[in-house]
Amino acid sequence: MFLELENITIGYQSPLIKNADAALSLGEVCLIIGNNGVGKTTLFRTILHQIPALSGNIRIDKKDIKTFSTKEIAKYIAMVFSKPQVPAHYTTEDLISLGKYVHYPYYFELEKKDKEDVQHIIQNLNLGPYKDWNLQKLSDGNLQKAFIGRAFAQNAPVMILDEPTTHLDEENKIIILKLLRDFAEKYNKLVLFSSHDWRLAKEFADKIWFIKDQTLHAGVAEDILISHQDLAAPFLFNMDQYFIPPVISAPLLEKEFLYSALQKNFKKDLSSFQFSYKNPFWEISTSEFVHQCHSFEEIIHFLRKRS
Q1: 258-305: per-residue pLDDT in tens?
Q2: Closest of 144, 146, 86 to residue 122, by C-alpha
Q3: Counting Cβ atoms within 10 Å, is residue 34 exposed (0-12), middle (13-18) or buried (19+)?
Q4: Which of 96, 229, 240, 298 is the most exposed place for a label (fewest CB within 10 A)?
Q5: Which domain of life does the UniProt lineage start with (predicted)?
């Protein structure tokens, strides 16, 4: 194992995560998920040794991080924070090239191979048209990709990214997630990242670290999801006290969408209705009738007529 957490407790005045044990190997991609404030960014900062652990040990390549200098941390870990500080007067190419200077003095001229690597990263991130742009002029999405590009250029064995798909549209989210997966597999790197788009991100992750109630649940992605079914279940949020939902028999996605459509349109008790998804139609039944609808619009119209 390349990154190991041993009985680690992290936080500030009070713990956010207690007595966590987890480990990751080179070549693995791990997604970290949990609500805001549970300690995801604090965990990242603790692994970087920017804040001390309250107890326990963190090892990288069998070495205790407490023995690492700042320069050694930078050689082992490339970090992308969700709200990085934007350097003034730098272009996209300048920023990505900065990743190479972890290995050289600041006054050093990059070698031909380094410059070729930077250009390759720029093209893979679809940043070619913006490589000479000042960072201040980039969109939030392209700026995010430029910082990820700097991390790629750093070529450290571990890459940690805090919400790397923030500000990105669906196409660019997939580009980034594919690149992270390819980076781990092709170059035998360890990638640890957090995401609120976890339903998409899990498709690219081998492992999941799920933080809940001060506990870190770690394991193969599918094992974590199936043992915490509140994660995989549709989010059925009741917005109105007068809305009582019907019985819904349907796959998760269709169930979530039907629940959403009904609660927005009916502030009433629908518990006498049963909805069954029969693909491509919905069967609506009560003790008095059975009716078919082929869209949510038809369902809404039908229930309104019966009100």
Answers
A1: 998 999 999 999 999 999 999 999 999 999 999 999 999 999 999 999
A2: 146
A3: buried
A4: 229
A5: Bacteria
In the chain, where are the structural domains located? 3-232, 247-306
Write the DSSP symbol of residue 192.
E
Matching residue, tokens 């649940």: 217
So what's the pLDDT on residue 233?
65
Residue 186 CA, chain-centre distance (Å), reads 21
Peptide bond just before 52 cis, omega within 30 deg: no
Residue indicated by tokens 């995010």: 144
Q: Of 136, 157, 140, which is closest to residue 74 (Cα–Cα)? A: 157
User: What's the CA gap between 50 and 302, in Å, rounded?
Assistant: 59
On the question of pLDDT at 161 being above 90, the answer is: yes
Amino acid, res. 171:
E
pLDDT tens-digit series, residues 291-302: 999 999 999 999
Annotate 69-88 with b (16+ C-beta within 10 A) or e (fewer).
Answer: eeeebbebbbbbebeeeeee
Which is the CATH superfamily of the domain at 3-232?
A: P-loop containing nucleotide triphosphate hydrolases (3.40.50.300)
For the chain, give the longest Cα–Cα distance. Answer: 82
**Side chain identity at 88, as an amino acid letter?**
A
One-letter identity of residue 191: V
